[in-house]
Amino acid sequence: MKIILVGFGVIGKGVLKVINLKKNHLLEKYGLDLSVVAICDSSGAAINKEGLDLELALKIKEETGKIASYPEFGQNIGIIEVIESVPADIVIEVSPTNIHTGEPAKSYMLKAFETKKHVVSANKGPLALFFKEITGVAKEHGVILRYEASVGGATPIINLAKETLAGNRVKSIKGILNGTTNYILTKMEKEQLDFNTVLKEAQELGIAETNPHQDISGLDTAAKLAILANSIMGREVTINDVVLEGITRITPESLLMANKGGYAIKLIGEVTDKKLEVCPKLVPIDHPLNVKGSLNVAMFNTDLANDIVVVGTGAGDVETASAILSDILNIHQSLKK
Ligand code: HSE
Questions:
Q1: Fewest C-beta in 10 Å: which of 95, 117, 177, 306?
Q2: 270 alpha carbon to ligand 1 midpoint, in Å?
Q3: What is the pTM of this model?
């Protein structure tokens, strides 16, 4: 299968590392021969129909910051033009997210569909704003869109609910969908540190958004909740419908007091048929939603399977790429049927 990689930041690099690492395994176990024919960033692209050297691409990006510096095959070209003109099976769309406009990622996705390419995305913005339109256009063109990595990084949430729990009605989803705020609350409680000191640490760990306001205001969780509401519960909502409160008012003292009473304070996203909200909540210390550090957790209440809880890593290059790889494999297997 031929891949176009759109976006060469933390996640894009993770995708190349994982493809490199798993190349032989994918061929032997699944008969999947992956070849990356284009890599795009804001500088342009490297394009080779025979397949690019992934280690070289990572090295060039590390040294120059620009994929257009790739020897012989690097060029200054727009991303839309690459998607339109380079023959490929799948576009992996991991360009920077914009949760206010969804652009330019939305246009990249639509262009991929129009040119009959499947899309695997980790991009929250377009899906949290235009879920119905985007999935509709994919369907219209007869191509597959998968987006497991957009919510919970490596944690299998969307595909778990839609595929493994198929046949169940999911009545509610509750969870911690943002690693940065979970890290901050855990650290503030444990070490009684103030908000800004711990936020700085979270930024140094590389889990916070470029604009950490999106994490602490709850907007990042709201984007993910909107995606879950649409994809799992069939609700037609956007990020703008989420009732929202962030964690900026939480103090080390309030965390300590809650702890003495047998509770942790967590930023919880919750969706039911009627509710769509993100706010700090008291969670009993022995409750499965009380996960520590930068972990993510989702709890589904279903009609047949009752409660199901899944915990995992919500960010990171290779971790997020693991969800992307599983989506690629799923497309490969669907096309074989
Ligand atoms: N800033 C996000 C988080 C990254 O902290 O969970 C993954 O979406």
A1: 306
A2: 17
A3: 0.97
